[in-house]
Amino acid sequence: MLIEIGHFALVLALIFSILLVVLPSIGIYQNKSSLAQLSKPLVWGQCFWITVAIFVLMSAFLSNDFSVKYVAENSNTQLPTIFKVSALWGAHEGSLLLWVFILSLWSVAVSVLSRQLPSNFLNQILIVLGFISVGFLLFLLFTSNPFERLNIPPLEGRELNPLLQDIGLAIHPPMLYMGYVGLL
């Protein structure tokens, strides 16, 4: 049931992202500041739901929920906890989820730390970040869903790529993504 909540959280994040693109755009176009000012709360809502999805997938790794295909392919019961955590971004689906999560964190940071910018300009920046989020979330949900279930879960999962079982490589992707996504 928890895995379905994670999937539903991604769907809600997609809805918030679409609303982030549409409503403030209409507000700017029609000169309605009440609609244009919705960009900040929508960014916060999007970030909240992506954070929920991250924590749900993390709990699946920590509880060895091998009914989740992504967990079964990238973790096992013998894997140390630090590598179970880093297994979240150890393959394509989780890495993409981490990318979207960091994008949502940067979007929130922009909404909070850019108060000196003119309101319309800030709203336009958040609309662009929302548009990018829509693309990534659609890709994540329709082609690379980390919450896909297995009909017959294995008793033991596969091993995380041995190259990723190093503390340096456990922290490398989040740091790298902070820079890549920060360029947006």
Task: Write structural notes for this entry.
This protein has 184 residues and is an all-alpha fold. The protein contains eight helices and no strands. It starts with a helix and ends with a helix.
Give the topology, please.
Blueprint: H1 2-29, H2 33-36, H3 39-62, H4 69-74, H5 81-86, H6 92-113, H7 119-143, H8 167-182
Global structural class: mainly alpha
Mean pLDDT: 90
Tell me the strand percentage band: under 5%
Radius of gyration: 18 Å
Which residues form runs of ≥5 with pLDDT under 50? none
Write out key terms for the chains shown.
184 residues; mainly alpha; 0% strand
Question: What's the short story on this structure?
Answer:
The protein is an all-alpha fold and 184 residues long.
